[in-house]
Amino acid sequence: QVQLVESGGGLVQPGGSLRLSCVASGRFFRINTITWYRVAPGKQRESVASITEDGVTNYSESVKGRFTSTRDNAKNTGYLQMNSLKPEDTAMYYCAPGAILSNGAVYTAWGQGTEVIVSS
C-alpha cells in the first residue's frame, strides 16, 4: 500500500551535518503528520521530531535547536536536517509518515531506516 524509502545517513564527525530524506509512494491520498524516530544502541525508540501537514513542527529536547524537520507535500517527502551532531545522536533513524488511505483510515508506514554515526 505504502512504500517508504529513507536515505541520507552516514558517518559524520561531531559538529557536522546530515540531511535525511523520506519518500513515500503508493496508494494513498496524502500524508498527514511525519514523525522521525531513532533507535540508539541499547536504548529504546525515541521520537525526535514531527511535522504536520500544515508544517507545524515539534522536537524532543535532545535535538531542539539542532534538528529541523521540513516537508514537500507535492513530492510526499519529508526531510530532517541535522546540524551540530553529537556522538549521542548515533542511531538508526526512521521516519513514520501517516498515509491517508481511500477509506479514510490513516496507515503509519515504516521504512528500513538509515544509520547515522557521529564519530571522530
Q: Compute the average pLDDT.
A: 95
Broad shape: elongated
Strand percent estimate: over 45%
Rg calc: 14 Å
Gap from first CA to last CA: 40 Å
* Subunit arrangement of the protein: single chain
The number of distinct β-strands equals 11
Quickly give the structural class: mainly beta
Order of helices and strands: EEEEEEEEEEE
Q: Biggest β-sheet: count, sense, barrel? A: 7 strands, mixed
* Low-pLDDT segments, ≥5 res: none
Report on the architecture of this protein.
The protein is mostly beta strands and 120 residues long. The chain contains no helices and eleven strands. The protein has strands at 2-7, 10-12, 18-26, 30-39, 46-51, 57-59, 67-72, 77-82, 91-100, 106-108, 114-118. Strands 2, 4, 5, 6, 9, 10 and 11 form a seven-stranded mixed sheet that branches. Strands 1-3-8-7 form a four-stranded antiparallel sheet, with no helix packed on it. Strand 7 and strand 8 (77-82) form a beta hairpin. The chain is elongated, with a radius of gyration of 14 Å. The chain starts with a strand and ends with a strand. The mean pLDDT is 95.
Notable characteristics:
120 residues; 4-stranded antiparallel beta sheet; elongated
Helices and strands in order, then pairings?
Layout: E1 2-7, E2 10-12, E3 18-26, E4 30-39, E5 46-51, E6 57-59, E7 67-72, E8 77-82, E9 91-100, E10 106-108, E11 114-118
Parallel strand pairs: 2-11
Antiparallel strand pairs: 1-3, 3-8, 4-5, 4-9, 5-6, 7-8, 9-10, 9-11
